[in-house]
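JOB MANIFEST
job_type = single_chain_structure
chain_count = 1
residues = 119
[input]
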Amino acid sequence: MEIWINPACSKCRSAVRLLDAEGADYTVRRYLEDVPTEDEIRAVLGRLGLEPWDITRTQEAVAKELGLKEWPRDAASRDRWVTALAEHPKLIQRPIITADDGTAVVARTDEAVRDALSR
């Protein structure tokens, strides 16, 4: 199990505390420092069953600079979104937990963290 976190994020810290309380075996990835590649982002999206715009933080300043809210959300634009996430990792929703069964969850709630633990 791996969790992508930004240590400055309260939801990330909460998720890590819950993983620790449950005695989970996991690896921390500080994705702002250890930036995921486009292929890693695609793989996580596949595990999540989501599209890149589903995990994009559109309220971030860089999202506004890029005009992301205006970008098409379709198959033809998917690579453009993935590239933006790789080039600007702050746009990636957090935390993301990749579960042992090959799936992943955006773990913004205790319930989502527990869901990842049960997989």
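[summary]
The first strand starts at residue 2 and ends at 5.
The chain has five helices and four strands.
exit_status = 0
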